[in-house]
Design brief:
This protein has 161 residues and is mostly beta strands. The protein folds into two domains: 3-69, no CATH class; 77-159, RNA polymerase II/Efflux pump adaptor protein, barrel-sandwich hybrid domain (OB fold (Dihydrolipoamide Acetyltransferase, E2P)). It contains two helices and 13 strands. The strands form four sheets. Strands 6-13-11-8 form a four-stranded antiparallel beta sheet, with no helix packed on it. The protein has a four-stranded antiparallel beta sheet with strand order 10-9-7-12, with no helix packed on it. Strands 1-2-5 form a three-stranded antiparallel beta sheet, with no helix packed on it. A hairpin with a 2-residue loop joins strand 9 and strand 10.
Length: 161
């Protein structure tokens, strides 16, 4: 997950009514909590004033959300920067196989060519074959089978060399 995606997630949580969100995949785990502590300030009236109870003012203070992230570093960002991403052209559900009992379209280490089907994204009961825009070797599958994907979300890393 990139820094911009994390910031967008924090902004979304801040503007929503949610107090806590936990996201966990094979590659990372993020826990975002929004704290809203209440501070009690007691102000007593000046001496000689009429005897009355002290006034209590409660002011809610919104603290910045805290993020705990444990992302295992399997490859350095320098190595990953030489790879090309095959991204999802739509929102839907990612499938790496044409049917539950069939072979994967591609596996890590497979060589793909431009126009070769690498997966299916199902959107509104339509199964859309996603074709590779690049030629190269599949280095990493970034999404789990049957999981939801967003528009422009990276699905595969391809080594073009």
């Amino acid at each position: 997950m990139k820094a911009k995606e994390i910031r967008d997630l924090i902004d979304f949580i801040s503007s929503s009514g949610l107090d806590e969100v936990n996201i966990e995949t094979q590659e990372f785990k993020i826990s975002v909590k929004k704290n809203t502590p209440v501070i009690n300030n007691t102000i007593a009236e000046a001496p000689g004033a009429a005897a009355s109870s002290p006034k209590v003012f409660e002011a809610p203070v919104v603290a910045a959300p805290s993020i705990t992230s444990s992302i295992p570093e399997t490859q350095s960002s320098e190595e990953e920067s030489k790879y090309i991403e095959i991204k999802s052209p739509m929102i839907g559900t990612f499938y790496i196989t044409p049917s539950p009992d069939a072979e994967d379209f591609v596996k890590i280490g497979d060589i793909v060519k431009v126009g070769q089907t690498v997966c299916i994204v199902e959107a509104m009961k339509l199964f859309n074959e996603i074709e590779s825009e690049y030629s190269g070797k599949i280095v990493k599958v970034l999404v789990e089978n049957a999981s939801p994907v967003e528009f422009d979300q990276p699905l595969f890393l391809v080594d073009p060399s």
